[in-house]
Structure to design on (498 residues):
């Protein structure tokens, strides 16, 4: 069992955050005035379905502690905890658009509960329901039988029809405080007997953007691999520290080109290869990017640095003088650092951006309208063009909630879009693998949907970069776009050039 499931809060007291929703529901339970329909809105991993289940237990527990706190011992509580209570019906609107489920719900809701006192329906990701399903649900919500209660949960409140919202008592779930997440991780670490550094837990908490589920998932990943140390967390996320890196980075920001080059030479004289240093500086820039999240101007500078140095890294092996690409990169980075990024980068970007933004805003509005009026499952939004995706890709990145997924995705770029399938090419298979897991893909898909209002499938691949060690590694682990060696690669093979 995953740690997240193991430590899923089982009563009001152990649920982290969401004080307002918790208190209101507890006092409604006490005064027997619970609303028949609730709408829980908020980011993923903030406790929506956990609270819904606790509510179901609170309603049905045979021997509640202090009036409304479920005992987690009685038959009803244990059945709910193990997912066996037939009177608790959970519908995942994301995996099927709900027509059959809602039809079945309407047919069966009139029957009295079989084991518990009440029937509780939890509809997760309710915004995914089709127009027909929403209409059917609305009829039920208008006159629910006295034994039936509803909790609708969503990450996208704006997609819920007004008619549904008006039938529900609504709670907004906020991101959980970093300190609360660290505290919870600490409790788990201690219960599990894991060795940890508090700083490492803080870093995990900071990186999970208020989502406890992601935080616990990341913690578990670290714990499985041994002690949970800051170094390990940083390393696994591609963040590395180092005084010289900070110095180097600041020289770039201050446009001290010569100093930066001198520092590079110093570092090299200590036996570090240019390629290794480039890798470290890219990691350091990523770390800065995370720290600067929310400050778009700084983030833009750092993103540009990452692009510049990633490009340099790809060119190293092709360059007749190995230092040349990094020296050029230093000059480019210094030039960029002093310009105002919003006006500065390649002139095409500066021109395109406002237009792209305006187009996107118009599209956003159109999508919202479409959704509130009537979302239907099969409606394909106006055809999306690849150029537009490419232009607005930053907005997709911005819409991703979990920093380490966002960070990993920054390593890739969209290269093709056809029949709803977007191909993203990554520089590194490590980052591709991070994005590749089902949950992380779903995050990217959600962000994409937020920006463009349409769904997509992802096709991830590693960029075919001639001669970099990256590709060699990739050819073993993942399948590159083409396995045909290029002429240069063959030549390199023949001459034994790395
Ligand atoms: Zn109980």
């Amino acid at each position: 069992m995953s740690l997240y499931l193991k430590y899923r809060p089982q009563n009001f007291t152990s649920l982290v955050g969401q004080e307002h929703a918790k208190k209101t529901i507890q006092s409604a339970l006490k005064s027997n005035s619970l609303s028949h329909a609730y709408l829980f809105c908020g980011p993923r991993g903030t406790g929506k379905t956990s609270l819904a289940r606790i509510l179901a237990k609170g309603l049905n527990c045979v021997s509640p502690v202090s009036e409304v706190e479920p005992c987690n011992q009685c038959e009803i509580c244990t059945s709910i905890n193990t997912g066996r209570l037939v009177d608790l019906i959970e519908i995942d609107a994301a995996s099927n658009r709900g027509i059959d489920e809602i039809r079945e719900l309407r047919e069966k809701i009139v029957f009295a509960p079989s084991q518990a006192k009440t029937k509780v329906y939890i509809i997760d990701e309710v915004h995914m329901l089709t127009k027909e399903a929403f209409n059917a649900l609305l009829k039920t919500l208008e006159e629910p039988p006295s034994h039936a209660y509803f909790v609708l949960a969503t990450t996208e409140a704006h997609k819920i029809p007004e008619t549904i919202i008006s039938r529900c008592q609504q709670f907004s779930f906020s991101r959980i405080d970093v300190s609360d997440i660290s505290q919870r991780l600490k409790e788990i670490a201690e219960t599990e007997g894991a060795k940890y550094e508090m700083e490492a837990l803080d870093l995990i908490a900071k990186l999970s953007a208020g989502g406890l589920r992601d935080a616990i998932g990341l913690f578990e990943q670290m714990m499985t691999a041994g002690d949970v140390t800051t170094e390990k967390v940083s390393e696994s996320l591609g963040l590395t520290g180092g005084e010289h890196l900070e110095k180097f980075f600041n020289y770039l920001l201050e446009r001290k080109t010569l100093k930066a080059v001198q520092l590079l030479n110093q570092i090299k004289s200590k036996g570090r290869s240019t390629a290794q240093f480039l890798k470290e500086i890219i990691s350091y820039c990523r770390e800065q990017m995370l720290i600067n999240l929310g400050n778009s101007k700084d983030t833009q500078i750092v993103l540009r640095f990452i692009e510049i140095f990633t490009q340099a890294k790809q060119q190293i092996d092709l360059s007749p003088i190995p230092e040349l690409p990094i020296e050029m990169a230093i000059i480019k980075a210094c030039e960029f650092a002093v310009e105002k990024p919003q006006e500065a980068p390649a002139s095409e970007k500066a021109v395109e951006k406002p237009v792209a933004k305006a187009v996107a805003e118009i599209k956003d509005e159109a999508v919202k309208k479409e959704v509130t009026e009537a979302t239907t499952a099969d409606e394909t939004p106006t055809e999306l063009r690849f150029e537009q995706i490419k232009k607005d890709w930053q907005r997709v990145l911005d819409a991703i909630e979990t920093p380490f997924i966002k960070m990993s995705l920054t390593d890739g770029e969209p290269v093709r879009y056809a029949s709803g399938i977007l191909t993203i090419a990554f520089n590194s298979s490590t980052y591709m693998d991070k994005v590749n897991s089902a949950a992380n893909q779903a995050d990217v898909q959600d962000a994409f949907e937020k920006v463009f209002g349409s769904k997509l499938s992802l096709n991830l691949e590693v960029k075919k970069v001639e001669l970099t060690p990256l590709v060699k590694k990739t050819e073993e682990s993942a399948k590159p776009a083409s396995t045909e060696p290029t002429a240069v690669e063959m030549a390199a093979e023949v001459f034994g050039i790395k």
User: Anything to note?
Assistant: The radius of gyration is 26 Å. The chain has four domains: 3-172, 178-236, 243-338, 357-463.
